[in-house]
Amino acid sequence: MKVLVTGGAGYIGSHAVKRLLAAGHKVVVLDNLFRGHREAVPQGVPLEEIDLRNTDAVTNTLTHHAIDCVMHFAALAYVGESVQQPLNYYDNNTGGTVGLLTAMRRAGVRRIVFSSTCATYGEPEKMPITEETPQRPINPYGWSKLFVERILLDEAAADAKFSFAALRYFNVAGSAEDGSIGEDHAPETHLIPVLLNAALGKVPKVTIFGQDYPTPDGTCVRDYIHVQDLADAHAIVMDALAPGDRRFYNLGIGRGHSVREVIDAAKKVTGVDFKVETGPRRPGDPPMLYANADKVHRELGWKAKLTDIHHVTETAWRWFKNHPNGYQSP
Ligand code: UDP
Question: 221 CA distance to ligand 1 centroid (A)?
Fold first, then answer.
């Protein structure tokens, strides 16, 4: 299949590109390179440096490359930033997707796999989170993605042959096992990269955001899914999409790890006893979030394989150690 990967120069998108190429698909990357990295796109893969809101240019790209399916990763994805700049998030994430869907309609492309998020669920009372858990986002980032889910349903209702899958990711972590690509965010706020930056001595200490949560060790619990498992899920879902399909799946490992457990894993994997302190809670952090991902297993046979937090951290460490300055490393 010929697949357009939006955001293919970013962290998750670049792992999807790698997976699609390995499966023999033809890939074109579309990225505005606002936070993506040209270096993350493999040689020989066309990189269209275009913003999704430029509908004419996106339409031309879809037509020119005779695209069969779109995998849509391109988005802004910092919760805190979304609270500070809501319009930017609605413009980029929701408006950008409207631009993309308009271009798809013009070009006659009717299949899309969309990166949604567990942030669309907000702070559910019951764990684990299933696809039936009510979606009540608590920040503009979550809303910007939930609006897209709604728009996809409406587009599918208007066009019987249009098909989509919205994949609700939990905490994506790790790097390609061969160390070729990885996570390179600025600013970097996610737990595992922060821990590895501390191990590298790039940050002086790590702060645990709250240790008085109603969890077994008092720190927050999250479901860390390896980026390669996530990429596998995308390929499987794409292959399964038939005209008229509307699919929603949670992608997680189905259990949680506390911040303290992840810190212990990072210290063990790196062999560095970096400094850890406890600070106040971070606003908006729910105590516990983990997925029930049985639906995608039941329907398509996908299940996370790389579920050992030590292994997940180890793959990330391989990348960080060899690329201390991300894609700008020599
Ligand atoms: N966290 C922390 N210190 C940090 C970064 C993160 O204690 O420097 C915690 C954060 O409060 C959350 C968990 O680690 O409970 C995962 O945070 P991350 O930002 O990686 O992902 P999120 O769950 O917010 O999407």
Answer: 9
